[in-house]
Design brief:
The protein is of the alpha/beta class and 218 residues long. Helix content is 39%, strand content 20%. The chain is built from 8 helices and 7 strands; from the N terminus they run αααβαβαβαβαβαββ. Strands 3-2-1-4-5-7-6 form a 7-stranded mixed beta sheet, with helices on both faces. It is globular and about 45 Å long.
Length: 218
Amino acid sequence: MKARLDAIIHRNQAEYLEQLLAQTDSLIAEMEQYAAEHRVPIADREVALFLEITARAINARRILEIGMAIGYSVVHLARGMAQGGMIFTIEPDDEMIRASEGYLGRAGLRDRVRIERGKALEVMPRLDETFDLVFIDAVKEEYSEYLELALPRLRTSGVVIVDNLLWGGQVAGEIRSPDQERSTKALREFNQQFVNHPQLLAEVLSVGDGLGYAVKVS
């Protein structure tokens, strides 16, 4: 729920949206609870739904996700993906991979997901697929590099979605603690790169914690 100190919308708005998008899926609710209890960062509920809607709208058959965690976003992407499609997702943490494999298996989606274990900047150059959709949600200081590695692998008219671009409001305001300085400055630079990129038609939406949305135009 967005009614927390780092929210980018007001509490009453957050509470309204929370009620409007009430969780009715028991597996997804369990994943949300696990993430909260174990402090695992996952996409906000409205972001996850946005991913599923987008995958369905563009009839995505090949999807690249950078940063899997417990597979919360993967489940939504796989549910929206075209029949016979495949998600390539990158995750360096063995514990996260084990958790995600369990959830994906229970969701009946394990055979639609190829998990690439390792750091994204090392894995991405080895991929030779052409993707319809790229979702970026990993190390904030590496977003610029992820984008440049992903674009040659994204088809023209393919979609890029990037999470956490408002970073709890810090990119447009004060940095709240020293440990947030590097990531906040990196996101400020990335946002400029993203919305002005010559290959993209892009904007940043006030969805979740700030969602970058772009289509590749060249």
